[in-house]
Amino acid sequence: MTPLVDSFGRVHDNLRVSVTDRCNIRCFYCMPETGVQFVNRAEILDFEEIERFVRIAVSLGTTKLRVTGGEPLVRRDLPVLIRRLAAIPGIRDLALTTNGVLLPELAGPLYDAGLRRVNVHLDTLDQERFLRITRRDDLGRVLAGIEAARRLGYRIKLNAVAVKDLLEPDIVPLARYARENGIEARFIEFMPLDAQNLWDRSKVLTADQILATLSREVAPLVPVPDPDPRAPASEYEYADGGGRVGFIASVSKPFCMNCNRFRLTADGKLRYCLFAIHEDDVKTLMRAGGSDEEIAALIRRNVAGKWEGHEISSAKFVAPPRPMYSIGG
Ligand code: SAM
Ligand code: SF4
User: Fold this and answer.
1) How many angstroms is it from 294 CA to the middle of ligand 2?
2) Model pTM score
3) What does the pLDDT read at residue 126?
4) What domains are defined for the chain?
5) Which of 127, 161, 195, 223 is deepest in the core (most CB within 10 A)?
């Protein structure tokens, strides 16, 4: 089998599948507060279609799979899908990204279905600030969800979006909370993918700024030895053995040249980059009776056409017409 490779020689073995564009909270850097236009249910891929796509992607060398959204836990019967995906031979790493609100109920059924890794999105431990950021009063549920996942033995990472003049008071409490609970905290630089075009470069709290704060106020951090060169996060560990912290510096230090990821949106569009403008319509091909070979060929073409990088920092940059929730972060 020829690997899934682009014109820059990057091998693609890491797939992100969005299972819904809906969400039960409204983070300001992702969704508008009201009036969100969701895709019609009939346009969303069903479980058979998702599983078929993943099997074809695996036949092209995919070994890592992340389920995301919107909020994946609002997709009805998600554990049924997870069980089917976990059973696909060739998937060596299956993970899920969630806001955690429904984890108290679903951590158990998802674990039973075969899931072992979750990234829980949490920007603050303060109830009032949580409400301001997400426009929902669900901090208690998220914390209970993390606790449930911890007890079950999941590998957990926390994702916080690094917005300048907002996240600063939360950096140290989040890092301490993660450290005390054996969880890796990860800070993701705010990217131009919000629905209301609020982003500009001056609103990005950079990885270096957070690293300096944590090293000074929590404990000294050092780069991990032998990091995975294809991982998007730069990984650090506390010199005192207190665990790891990751930084996704998409804006200040783009990692496009190491990218191994491609994406399927909930409405069946194939994207070679979070910021891609071009997408290919897998759903229409599938629903028109396309064969596995035709779908595989479409995946190869999409990845082959991948650009060198997103160029957020260049004057030429154009934000994609779809915000984060509709692509699948
Ligand atoms: N709803 C789930 C969640 O929030 O984790 C999964 C989907 S969400 C779109 C995936 C990730 O994107 C989250 O970790 C969130 O923090 C991140 N995110 C959303 N909007 C972002 C933005 N404008 N810049 C950077 N990260 C963002
Ligand atoms: Fe929902 Fe995740 Fe977007 Fe927040 S970041 S609004 S939780 S999809």
Assistant:
1) 33
2) 0.96
3) 98
4) 14-327 (3.20.20.70)
5) 161
